[in-house]
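Quick note —
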Amino acid sequence: MVWLKRGAIALVGVLVLAFVVLATWEPFAASAAPAAPTRTYTAEIIRDEWGVPHITGKTDADTAFGVAIAHAEDDFFTLQDVVAMARGRYGAVAGEDGAKVDYVYHLIDARGTAEREYPKLPADTRALFEAYAAGLNQYAEAHPGEVKLANLFPVSGLDVAAGFALRQPFFFGLDGVIGPLVAGEELRREHGPDIPGFPRPPLPGGEPAAEAAPKQARARVLPLGEDAEHLGSNAFAVAPKKGGGVTTLISNSHQPLRGGVAWYELVVESGEGWHFAGANFPGSPFPFLGHNEHLGWTNTVNTPDMIDVYQLELDETGTRYKLDGQWRDLESKWVTLPVKLGPVVLPVRKEVLRSAHGPVIRNAKGAFAIRYGGIGQLQQLDAYYRLNKAKTFAEWEGQLSRLAIPSTNFIYADAGGTIAYVYNAAIPNRPTSVKADWRSVLPGNRSDLIWDGAVAYETLPRIVNPASGWLYNSNNTPFTAAGAGSDLDPQAFAPIMGIELKQTNRSWRAYKLLSEASLLDRRALEAIKYDTGYERQGYVARLFDALAGLKAQGKLAEARDLLLAWDFNADGKGRADALALLIIRDFMAADYNNKPFPDVAEKLGAAADHLTTHFGRLDPPMGDLLRLRQGELDLPLDGGSDTLRASTTWDVAEDGRLSLKHGDSFIMWIEWAPGARVSSRSVQPFGAASTRPASPHYTDQMQLFVDHKLKPVHFWRDDLLANASSRRTVTNSGTKAR
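Predicted structure written out below.
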């Protein structure tokens, strides 16, 4: 039996060796680290009483270096996730969900795009990214105990750029196309008439219009953009004539409260004229929205038809596709996806395909190629940087007109009183001379259907200084933006562009309240921004019509009657607010994503069961149900899914409470008053140090957020120094406190 014992020992040895290999292979297989930069950077980081960093450098690059240091001090945990995504290694951190991101990273060739396009960027833009990478490397080197994935650092500017290339298409729904294709599901075709021709969208108060955008399934599967099932942001601009002499811009983006697309507030300044207050996402050296001395802007997600899908005709080998009568080889590359499973990381091999159209996904129904607006482009890195430093509307719009930023609405205001709305989108320049149903899956064997580039900027919806004196967007059609007499005519825009016609409840409410106001001063705008009402329009009307006709008994009938007596206001004061909060979200999600209307009795029963199980009643105060939670702080919230005061999605805790995870996030209120320099106020849901429980700024803004209050933004240096809580200089070689 000696041989059996020896065999068992050998088997144990093999298993131990296999475990060691699986636990350690991934960092060694990662791409070689770039050479460390030789340039020395120096920045000053001053934090105000709320811990918000004001980063100053002699050059813009020095400031970008400081941005990375400051952000890492507050949230190095999330920054590492973003870096892992940018290097195709997120699966080694987040397991299967991370591996899905890594697959898309390879599928859309994010690294290849960065390698081709990053060297083409202007030298000063690249200098910004190299400096930001140096800041990340400096922090990682100084804090090795915080690094959660070996060989993740150092990173280069190209790595940071690859992260932009990965995220870029997801804000207009690419993941909602990739997901169904990978799963072999049908792409859900959105509501709307066939092209050509589509109806005018009604003004709020009429029946909701159908969608015109094509074939886009919006059930997103990746943590890269706004939660598409509960998409939301609000933006408002008011001209002096309507605002009592004050120009106002309100940024009210709805992002996840935590993670890779949660807002981080900062102020940047340099000796080269860069001075901007606002917020960015982890992995960016500059703010994406906010203001400088002269002007400001904010964004909301729009959903034009930016994506076309082609079904390829393959030969019997499945390795070639036909195009214009000729067989072409599918480009094929095998990649290894790391998938963390407990203490080990499994290597999963995956084939990535590409055709002349773009990325290719093969499933049981065939092979499908995807082409989308901004494919293979990376100029947005330069455009955002230039927008930060623009001084006039003409200069600012000149950057937008490049269509380097593939999508998102822009709402603008400036010190001179100009306000503007631009439906920014690099909509594919589809040929009108060919016959095709662009709203369906296209034949992949015709090269005349493979468009190149975007439509002209001049063809996009755009409003400057409307007669109404106000502009808004709440993820609705651009054809309701400025009020009766100032709105654009949808018939003036080509249907082939696929501009959405959808309204949201936030749009119904904003349009009504803005139109009714004789003066939009601070008090009036605060009432609109924090409005918690619902209009009985669209999916809300359909839901309550169904409730009115619902035959029920017992608890279900009691719940129905409670809702039918509701005042359509999620302010937390009504008996039915908690029940309405629970039931409305699913109907909103179905409407947003063009899914079948949910079963009203089923949803009502589930909501009633939840409340009686956890609260012992159908009518608990809504603030007992909906909570803002971080660390030891647990506060009640108001608002609902698709209200202007947005409490959109949540996690359900063991105690039955709903912990907000997506909704009102970073809010910024900017004003240019006569004879005064620009001033602004802001708030975050938690605090500046979003993943540092030991920091005094982990939860210090929560009560402000709950109470509908804002804190000052110390944009000007004299104001900042009067309110500074810390001040130090950071360089490549260390930190010096002052």
